[in-house]
Amino acid sequence: MLTFIGLGLYDEHSITVEGQQALRSADDVFAEFYTSRLIGTSVEDLASYHDVSITVRDRAGVEQEPAPILDAAQRGDAVFVAAGDTMISTTHVDLRLRAHERDIETRVIHAPTAETAASSLTGLQNYRFGKATTLPFPWAHGGDGVPESVVDTIEDNRDRGLHTLVYLDIKAEAGEYMRAGTGAKLLSEHWDGTPLGVVVARAGSPDPFVGADRLETLAEFDFGEPLHLLVIPGDLHHIEADALRELAGAPAEVLSE
User: Fold this and answer.
1) Does residue 228 share a domain with residue 165?
2) Can you state the percent helix, strand and coil of the chain, rounding each to 5?
3) CA torsion sign, 245 to 249 to 252 to 253?
4) What are the angstrom distances between the C-alpha of 7 and each of 82, 117, 192?
5) CATH code at position 251
6) Which of 7, 61, 152, 155 has its CB 3.0 to 4.6 Å from that of 57, i.e. a possible disulfide?
7) Which domain holds residue 35?
8) Residue that finishes a domain, picked among 74, 93, 109
9) Is 234 helix (H, G, I), strand (E, B) or coil?
10) What does the pLDDT look like over 98-153, one tens digit per residue?
11) What is the pLDDT of residues 21-69, one digit of tens each?
12) Does residue 96 sit in the same domain as residue 125?
């Protein structure tokens, strides 16, 4: 059996009760933290709290050399854990399909994700979000500024009145996490009269932050420790506008435009 378990958003306590039970009863535990990580804890503390031994795999060890994970699942109960939900923004469908090719039973135990948290914390309705996008560090995509694909995604969503969830680049292995101010500055350079942006910082932690203003204004602030993400709203329902004003401090004059 190979069980995929989402660890949630922040620390060793963010996992669901079902996930915790499966994790603690497993014969072998594997993890990846190259796409994201739990900012509120360490691998050592995670393992200690759940009284398990965790084998951390890098990207190659999951995508190109999955045999140790699959072998463990074939001989007993193995779990594979990752921050958030293992099958949403961090997808491991390929690993699951490889398990099925070897007739290994699989299951998924879900957990909160940045996507659901962004909707919950901002008050923006989840069914009014369009396609999400990821804003990379300029040096990471071999170009300058913002890739055209990112701008096109935001513009396409805005044309349809939909919100855009903008994931900010993470290079977890190098300890580099794009901050919301950096992301807002990069995006603000692509519009005259920069649009409204919403910052969500440290979702799932005891002190999450939500703030809304023009992108050029957000670019001037330090929103504290990661993880951060941005939302570029589309057309706002009046309840969404009220939520951004009351929950995120959006200026009335910006909301009225």
Assistant:
1) yes
2) 40, 20, 40
3) negative
4) 6, 14, 40
5) 3.30.950.10
6) 61
7) 2-109
8) 109
9) coil
10) 999 999 999 999 999 999 999 999 999 999 999 999 999 988 777 778 999 999 99
11) 999 999 999 999 988 889 999 999 999 999 999 999 999 999 999 999 9
12) no
